[in-house]
Write the structure tokens for this entry.
Amino acid sequence: MSETAPEVPQVRYPRGMLPRCCLYAALVMLLGCPENALKRVEPETGLGERELIVSPEVIDFGLSAAGERRTEAFTLSSIGSAAVHLDTLTVQGSSAFTLTSPGAITVEPGEDVDVVVTWTPQSYADNAHVLITSDATTPQLQVSLSGAGLYAGIEVTPSSLAFTSEYGESAEEMLTVKSVGTIDLVVSQTLITGAEFSIYTGADSSGGDGAFTLAPGAQRSLPVTYTPPGEDDVSTGNVWFSTNTANAVLAVPLYGEAAVPCYGLGEAWDRGVLGVGTNGLYQIVLQNDDPKIPICMDQWYVFLSDVSQDAIAGDPYYDLSGDYPFGSVTIDPGDEAEFTYNLTTDYAWWCIEHEQYTQPFVDYDFRGARAPTALLARALDGDQDGIWAREAEEPVVAIGRTVHYSALAAGASGPGGVVVWNMGDVATTATVTETLPTGFEASAFSLDPESSTVNSDSSVTYTWQVDLDPRQVSSSGENTIYDEETITWTLTRTGDCDARLTAPEATASWQDSEGTQLSTANPLVIHCE
């Protein structure tokens, strides 16, 4: 009798699955053993051993009256697998915020600790933050703190004012006052120090103290004026605001400087800082001896010398429409400008005497007489013979001043005057005019004017008729003698004026074969002290 082996049950696995033993065998074959034996992998949690978080990260206490206390809290939570040790909890910023220290300095895993913050308003905008340091994975955390107390606040821009005054004239700058608090800003007084400064706080300012009130967010612009006592002065001061803010008083520093952009030739001559002469190259040299102020030359001028060639000199590219004293020639402090004979492309001079010789290293006189137009036209064309011919055939009149610059206080007097002369070989009668600005009058004339006319702007124009004989020319190289008339007067300041005035030009007009000719003198500059 034969024996039959027992039937082994068959196990069918779903498609795609292998028996566990086969799977293990496959892995062993793939990875090797024992070096790459399978190990158990723990699921990742995303947390380190020490993890600390804070909530909330921002605390806004809102709006509160002065002296009222409010409290809020934030929570520190340990969410790691190990305890977190707190090192410090400090408030950085406004002292309006204080902390109630937590009882524990160690936060166990899963534990929460509350920290209480107290706010006592100190201003309209208290801001700070709590800095939390620990041995957690993130060693520093912050909680931002803010609160708005019912306080007034002031912001003034700019924080200081600097003024620059040209020629001593008044200068104005603006201050802006803004209410940046949570209640009305009350400015109970606005005070300005420094006699040269003034401020206007508005028509609604009360009591003459510059008081005004601004609602939160409102602002006001205040003009501040600087009027220097002189043309070369430095002044300092402050604007003081007395307010209902926590600091009560706010000061804005003021600084003013009176600057002179440049002197005209006439003013520089009267101030003693303009030198005129010739050098060894027979150039006419204008020297600026002022240590700080440039000298400007606006037009062509007449220069006279008893021992050298009388001349007209200037820049061929000058701007006839320039505003005195500014022009195309500027001589810096300590510098000089050189004018070369017979040029049409650079600073130049031209002869107005036919017989006189040019001498080196001699001085010239300056009267502020601008080159007569008939001669200037020929100089700009490079026509020296034409200049001499014009003088030989026609009258040529120049007009200058005896005084170019005058500083007068209210009611004070000083000298004034003009001088006219004929540089031609033909006699003439010249009509001379001088116009004084409003607030000034002339008296004690050396030659009474034929008329005085009050103009629409209240200035006064004086007029003279002056007979001038021909010049006397020497044939031996000696100096030419001109027939001239000097008219002087006393100038008195009778009214108000603003720092510095430039009076109209003095004029001389005459007739020749081509019609009416005109010459001018540089304006009289008056500084009102």
